[in-house]
């Protein structure tokens, strides 16, 4: 993991999914961009793994791990089985103030291909939702540790302890505290039902900006 490789120290918050999803706020309402539905019924926990399942009709879910912090590190162990390309598996930081887009958004793992063989990182910023972007090749059907390190000096994305994306542009910095969210978002393309798809998470950890 990035935490072990880089000496991030002791997490100030951790979730191993041994007691369900009690630390999390589950979404309940319209799906991404108003399409489909986000429902707590799409989440299950078994043997220490949290699974979000997206159904053919666009019922899926997202979970928020708030409150967050301004600057810090977040890491999660994730697997995304082969699925429908209309289902995007996402780990992201979202503004505590719920003031998107000016509050920013950091998608440090977005897996959109049906074969799950690559991942993207998007840093959203500004009132016009401008974006910075990077892509890494990875077999996301296997377990990997995905992390983001957010400091006043920059934003860095990691997979299995290896940095693969970084920006030091001050213009993209979020203006306030952010919290981790885990989402399986539906982007319907038309032409019939989607293939059932999943996002699985074994653990997540949050660290302060300075190792303790």
Could you describe the 3D structure shown?
The longest helix has 5 residues, at 2-6. The chain contains 1 helix and 18 strands. The chain is globular and about 45 Å long. The two termini are 17 Å apart. It has 212 residues and is mainly beta.
What's the overall average pLDDT, rounded?
A: 96
Major beta-sheet overview: 8 strands, antiparallel
The count of β-strands is 18
Structural class: mainly beta
Number of helices: 1
How do the helices and strands follow one another from N- to C-terminus? Answer: HEEEEEEEEEEEEEEEEEE
Beta-strand level of the residues, as a percent range? over 45%
Calculate the terminal CA-CA distance, rounded to whole Å. Answer: 17 Å
Radius of gyration: 16 Å
Give unreliable regions as ranges: none
What is this structure, in a nutshell?
The chain is an all-beta fold. The chain contains one helix and 18 strands.
Which descriptors would you attach to this protein?
212 residues; mainly beta; eight-stranded antiparallel β-sheet; seven-stranded antiparallel β-sheet; 2% helix
Could you give the topology of this structure?
Blueprint: H1 2-6, E1 13-15, E2 25-26, E3 29-30, E4 37-38, E5 43-46, E6 49-54, E7 59-60, E8 62-69, E9 72-79, E10 87-95, E11 105-111, E12 118-125, E13 130-137, E14 144-151, E15 154-159, E16 162-167, E17 178-186, E18 197-207
Parallel strand pairs: 4-7
Antiparallel strand pairs: 1-18, 2-8, 3-4, 5-6, 6-18, 8-17, 9-14, 9-18, 10-11, 10-17, 11-12, 12-13, 14-15, 15-16
